[in-house]
Amino acid sequence: MRLSKTLLATSALTVAAAGAYAAGHGMADSMTLVSWGGAYQESQQNAYVEPYVAMNEGVSATWDESSAEAVAKLRAMNEAGNITWDLVDVVASDAIRLCDEGLAMEVDHDELLAPAPDGTDASDDFGDLIVSDCFIPQIVYSTTFGYRTDMVPEGADAPSDICSVFDLETYPGKRALEKRPINNMEWALLCDGVAKEDVYDVLETDEGQDQALAKLDTIKDEVIWWSAGADTPQLLADGEIFMGSTYNGRLFSVIEEQDQPVAMMWDAQVFDLDGWIIPEGLPEDRLARVKDFVRFATDTQRLADQAKYISYGPARESSAPLVSTHAELGIEMAPHMPTDPNNAQNTFLYNYEFWADYRDDIDAKFQAWLAQ
Amino acid sequence: MSEAILTPIEKKPIGFTAGVLAAAGGFAGLFLGTAQGSGLLGVVIGAALMAALAFVAMEMLGEGLEKSLRWAMIAIGVVAGFLFNGIPGLIMGGLFGWFFGWFIYWVGMGRYRAHLVPYLTPGQVLWHYSFRVICGAIFVFLITPIIVVMPLSFNAEDFFTFTPEMLSFDPAGYSLKHYRDFLTNPEWTNAVKNSLMVAPVATLISVSLGTLAAIGLSQSHVPGKRAIMAILISPMIVPLIISATGMYFFYSKIGLVGTYWGIVLAHAVLGIPFVIITVTATLVGFDRSLTRAAANMGANPVTTFFKVQMPLILPGVISGGLFAFITSFDEVVVVLFIGSAELQTLPWQMFTGLREQISPTILAAATILVAISICLLTSVEILRRRSERLRGMSPG
After folding, report:
1. What pTM does this model have?
2. Could you say which of A66, A81, A228 has the minimum Cβ distance to residue B252?
3. Residue among A64, A82, A228 minimizing CB distance to B341
4. CATH number reported for the structural domain that contains residue A223 in this entry
5. CB-based contacts of B86: which residues, under 8 Å, 6+ apart?
6. N or C: less crowded end of chain A, CB within 10 Å?
7. In the listed set B92, B119, B146, which residue is the last one of a domain according to the structure?
């Protein structure tokens, strides 16, 4: 008991001393962090920023809710030679783009990020989730479906299969789908008899793309297209739609925090990653501060802490066992994670390579189809 | 309706009354029916019901029982509405009953003609009333989106939804929590603070520069007046996004992006055209011989401006300033480019809030802003009338 107290005290002292040392040695004392707003940004504030600011007196962090247009804004900042952001939260595909364009800084993950508590290198702890040299993974989220439990037709089972989205006979009513081809095309093919492992081979071809659009055509009249993550929760709460796709954390909030009659349908959920990038071209002192912050914010405990506030899976393998209960509701978070074995029986991982190559073509086709 | 009776009225044939009432009933039934699931059924029931009532009122009860019929209809409306839809139904039903109780006699006894001049043709009478209905409809069309927002801002839930509790006027369905959030959440309070710091300064700059420019441009000896005017009001014509991009790259070069003065200057530029236009308009009615008279009496140009010209063009300056203030207070596009996370203004906060999390706090903010705008505009109007009265420009 006494030993652990002493240990705690020493480590706290060390941390404080390190903080004081850092503050005195060329680190800027304010940061502009860019994120997505809403419950997600809140979880980052609670899990990373507040403890960090508590440890480093005099440091302040400001949020800019601009992740949605991060690529365009970073391009403009780069062109204008005036980088005002210090750390940017982006989805993996944006990180890859920014890295290719030289707008994000390449990092050495092992050097920058803390090792796991058992000493495993950061790059092994994050594993395959490091999809780009610039990308510092944070969470695994999924795009999946929620449906109104009180609108399930009498006599029908609750939808548990992705193809119920396309089954207007059993499940009449409006559906909300994201206004982009990604995910929708895969789901359409899957429900048009294409085997899961062949989906991307089929989608490469013109005929395959037409096939997917033809399948989507069967429900087009019943689809409301969303573009912001908050749309589907609002539509579900209104009872405007029977089911709709959105990010699983948003659905968690609708179901558990807002108590709406909504349930999850995890089938064929699509995993995607979200993480930090450091903009290229930061001045020395700001870069030093950001590196210090990122090392802290992506360590094993911090990533596990974030799951107290939102149902996104931590990107580190070593964080998973530390995931505990929701900070306010007190419910176990593990069963709400997209990575939970019960939820992850049939999943996709966002195919970064495929969509990097085909996105422009398929986007054009999809938009033309939408306008028909 | 206190005007004298201009045209003697007479009882209309029952066919006419029943026809008009059937049309009105069908129209009302369309809305009620659609709300209950079948528009067509609503139209038929509404039309039949009203035609029958018109017959009963005109042919069987007559004018003597008008009061009793109206009370009976209100009572029936209240009961039927309550059975259908609870308390909101009760209110709606009562209103419907009251309206139709009045409407039947208004049409049936030909009272609608009473206050119109006798020589109008039926077409002109019809137009007289349809004109008013159209004006009312336009008014409703303009105001409804704003009105709808207000009750929603008292929603107890975190969605833009009229919950069943709200519709049945259950106090549990209402809450001030979004107002609490707006007034205590630092994100919102900082945004309000920033907006209040930016808008007055930007307004001051636009009003001073815009007024001077308008006065200068109203002189006859300025060369290239039209070209200068076109350039000055171009921020109003060029799409905002283009101005914003241009400003962003220009301001980056001179280090103004993300600074307080950057936003103030950008908003001043956007506000200047409004001031120029309103001041130029008031200058048209300004008598130049007054400035010459002042100069003749020995006043220098500065004194002349403040003592003679300024008071006369003040209404234009004030309304220009008001527009400039509102432009700065409402502006989101330029702020998204020029602003920075520390300098988030209210519209920025509303914009990102609406995109990423549809939270009714935005509605609370909107309601408060509407209330403030109404107060501002009312006080400006009262001041204007007062000064006009003092100067004897309008009677009363």
Report:
1. 0.73
2. A81
3. A64
4. 3.40.190.10
5. B167, B168
6. N
7. B119
